[in-house]
Amino acid sequence: MDFSRVDLCEDDQAFLDEVRTFLRTHVTDEVRRRDRETGENFDEGVHLAVGAQGYLAADLKPESDGGFSPVRRRIWELERGRARMPSYHTGTTAMIARTVEPFASQQIKDEVLAAAHTGHVRLCLGFTEPEGGSDVATCKTRAVRDGDGWIINGSKMFTSNAHNSQYVFLLTNTDPGAPKHKSLTMFLVPLDTPGIEIQGIRTIDGDRTNITYYSDVRVDDRYRVGDVNGGWTVLRAALNAEHGIAERDVHGLQKTAAMSEFGVQMAEAIDAIAAIAAEEDNDGRRLLDDESVRYRLGRSIARTEAALSTPEMFGRVAVVQTIRDVTPDLMDILGTASSLPADADSSPVDGAVEYLFRLALPAGIYGGTLEVFRNMIAEHALGLGRPDYSPPKR
Amino acid sequence: MDRYELRRLDYSLSEAHTDLQAAYRQFFKTSCSIDTVRAAEASGFDKNLWERLCAMGATTMALPESCGGDGATLVDLTLVAEEIGRSLAPVPWIDHVCAARLLARLGALDIANDGAADLVNGAQIAGLDPQIDSAGRVRLIPAGSVADHVIVRDGETIVRLTFDTRPFRVDNIGRLPMAWIDPDKADTRVILAGGTEALAGYRRALDEWRLLTAAALVGLVEETMTIAAEFAKTRYTLGVPISTLQGISHPLANMAIALHGGRNLARRAAWFLDNEPDERPELAASAFVFMAEEAAEAATMAVHIQGGLGVSAEAAATAYFVRARGWPLAGGDPGASAKQIAEIVAARESRAERRS
Lengths: 394, 356
What we know:
Largest interface: A-B, 69 and 70 residues
Structural class of chain A: alpha+beta
Helix content of chain B: 55-70%
CATH topology of the largest domain in chain A: Butyryl-CoA Dehydrogenase, subunit A, domain 3
Largest sheet of chain A: 4 strands, mixed
Number of helices of chain A: 13
Strand content of chain A: 5-15%
Number of strands of chain A: 8
Shape of chain B: globular
Radius of gyration of chain A: 23 Å
CATH topology of the domain at 205-355 in chain B: Butyryl-CoA Dehydrogenase, subunit A, domain 3
Distance between the termini of chain A: 56 Å
Order of helices and strands of chain A: HHHHHHHEEEEEEEEHHHHHH
CATH architecture of the largest domain in chain A: Up-down Bundle
CATH class of the domain at 205-355 in chain B: Mainly Alpha
Radius of gyration of chain B: 20 Å
Strand order of the largest sheet of chain B: 1-3-4-6
Strand order of the largest sheet of chain A: 1-4-5-8
Number of domains of chain A: 3
Oligomer: heterodimer
CATH class of the largest domain in chain A: Mainly Alpha
């Protein structure tokens, strides 16, 4: 057990200074403002600069192959969070690249993965379908053999960042007659292929995601990842990475759970509210003098600290559920002004709570709904068995 | 505070920790069955169990070496507390170690004094008033009917009370050896200390009491969850185990989520009190506020999952249910701790804002 400050050696201290300078230079107020406006969680200029600096490659590679050491990886993670660098989809590319690597042909490695290291290639996920929800195995997007290639037809939801990406990591059905886990095949489909349409959708937290449509899209067999009808094996590895349940042990130099960065943002906002609550108005009165404010603030802090402590798949639920639970109280404490978004005149805590209140909705859905994780906890941690899914009433 | 500060977030237990944990888990497993728990309900205290627990060194470990103790860390103590909660052990261990540690802090546990050794090894029991703001003179003390020494705050002083005849136990939902204590009716009343430092020492004892109670509630929730989960796996409705119904499995998953969060928070709070006590003083109360709320909810659901069998007074589930409510309530309104948390964090953050 250890929660101490990490003593940095001279080299790592220099790395920290370098990272901070880099972020100050490239992640400007203008970048952050544009990110709020577009909801893209991605900035091409920043992304390419990160690539040029070598951080993308270092983040993608294992330490043995020249990648970040655990302490540098953690520094990079914390500092880009502090700087509010639009980086969510940097993570998506990294996750797909890591998943694809063991299954991919040399050609894909050369064409795609090498350019992902420099930032010139970005990857997005094409798992979920409009009618499929969190059950990715109910895949209706079809890929049919056509000589040395495949013809793909279908559509995908939540293909976030597709409009800034060069490839979509696409889940297709190649054998509709087979049991669902033996019918899937994965592809890395170039997004400039004719027949692909990207349609933007804004979600309630302000993010931009996409629906992508695939009409007679012809893709060469070399873009296949893994075996034909062997997609489930590839997908399993990808979902484990997306669910954040494959965290490695690095002596406390990792996130406590997937999406715990949202919990950190929650804690940051509460700290700011606590400071506001202690401010005296012209009559010397403080919000904190109201006992109901003091109680609600204290309870919100307690629950947020508990969520931040909750590990692994338990934490994946706890963080988002807690943000959903405590943000209404925190908004109430701040009063009507807490209904103002960031960038509005005199918005308290720069709209952070209003944002988190909205964020916690999609954050409990994408990357697997909270129910998916409760199912996993029930089945794998408590041994309760798979949920009973009754057939529909005829 | 800097939420992006580079600190380790390492919750893992050392081998010494897991050995300690295993020893106490085994002890309570063999010595404290649910029948033992039931048998002690009339008094709230199993003297035999207490003596065997003390013989294991459970009280001695908690005290500093300068007082003849073994100088265990608070992290160590949370591990023992968790096992007490898991087994619902009818022993005033949390109250005793918090009170004895307070005496040590106030310099009132002089090793040369005969009575001191008895307090260290648990032959004499110390209790305390765990409430943040006790209203009125007469108060409910959770270990009041079995304690040889009762430590209370009286205005600006800390006093030690003794009674020639132990105060009567009052029945209570936590099945604790609780008694009404009137400081004015004590046979001896010794002022131990007064002033800012002494009061800070008392506040620390209240923090430790909340921390260890939170840890005990974690163990309590884990055990009642496990019993309910086992029941759900073998109970069938319309041909399927009820554990496969999400109306049952998701509340059980929520219990698992709460106990993992509460456990890690209690350990982190303990680590900070052990190593950097001024850094995160709000965490012990946070663990308490969180677990006080979650334990009652979890224990209620654990009974509910077992339906008509769960609600019977003989079911283990109901034993967990009443204590999940009664143990934290022994410290008064948990809302008082919530308010304290807000004050601590507001003071820290407004200082930080003035600095920047």
